[in-house]
Amino acid sequence: MPNSPEVLENKIDNLIQKVDTGFKGIETRQNITNGNISNNKKSIVKLEKEDIKIKNSVKNTKILWFIITTLVTTVAFFVGQHF
């Protein structure tokens, strides 16, 4: 008999194994994805910190060049006044 209780029980057991295997595969992929997302978040935070350092460095360089230019212009002005 094709649909005997033993055959149905065997089919149900096979189905349960396939479902369990499928869910384990999904959980594994989710764990991998979550790990990648976590690593990417860490990389983004690191890049944001580096970006802030670079912006501060550029800002400090601009201020330094402004001060140097102002001093050179002031010295040139006073030297020009005396000669």
Task: Please provide a written account of the structure.
- With 83 residues, the protein is an all-alpha fold.
- The chain contains one helix and no strands.
- The chain starts with a helix and ends with a helix.
Summarize the structure.
With about 80 residues, the protein is mainly α.
Write down the overall geometry. Answer: rod-shaped
User: What's the SSE pattern?
Assistant: H
Number of DSSP strand runs: 0
What is the first-to-last residue Cα distance? Answer: 119 Å
Describe the biggest sheet? Answer: none
Which range does the strand content fall in? under 5%
List the total number of helices. 1
Which helices and strands appear, and what pairs or packs with what?
Elements lengths: L4 H78 L1
Key attributes of the depicted protein:
1 helix, mainly alpha, 83 residues
